[in-house]
Description:
mainly alpha; about 55% helix
Amino acid sequence: MIGAPLLPNAITSQDPLLPEYQPPDWSRLWELVNFIIFDYDNPKSHPSRVTPFDLACDILAHGLENGIAEAFEAFIEKKCLAVFGAHPYRLRLVRVINGYVAGIAKSLTNERRIDYLHESENLYVACSILASNDWTRDISPGDDILALRNVRPNDPAWVSCRDRLRRLETDAVQRPKWETELTTEEVTREKKNISEASALLAVGAINISRGKRRHIPWHG
C-alpha cells in the first residue's frame, strides 16, 4: 500500500484528505502511480466526495508541482502520458499535467523531464488534456496551455500538436465510460475550450515564425 496512513485512510474516509495536510512518503510514489494506472477504468462508484483515483492524482500532482524527483521518475518510467492517451479522458488529469508543467517550469535544467513532455505523442496528450479543461472549472484553459507552451516554445513537436488539436475540435467528446455522456451544453463548452487553445497555439506559431525567440507576450 502507498504511504500509510495517507492513501489507505483516504480511500476509506468520507472526507477528502488533501496532500498538503500530511506529506506523503514520496519514496513510495511508484506504488501510487501503479494504482492510478490499474484503477483508471474502475467502473465502481465510491461514497467519498473524491474517489481513490482522484486522491491519487492529487498527490501525484502535488509531488510533481513541488519538484519531487520520485514523482517525476515514476511518471516517466511508467509512461503515464501513454496510459492517459490510451484511455477516455479523466477530469483529474488536468491537475496532474498542470503539476508536471509547474514542476519543470521552476527549474528548466532537467532535460530528461522536458524531453519526455515534448515527445510528439506525449505533447499532444498533455496539450489535449489541458485544452479539454475540467468541466467543473469556471476559468479558461488558456493559462494552462500557455504555461505548457512556454516551457519550450520552439520545439518542432508543436507543429503536429497544433494540427492534431484542430482536428480534435470535430471529434466526438465523451466522459469516462462509467460516467454519463456529456450534455449538449458541456459538449459546446468543451469544443469552445479546444478551439481557444488551438487559436492560442496558432498565434504562438506566427510570432515564432517572425523571429520572436524570446518570451512571447501571449496576452495581447
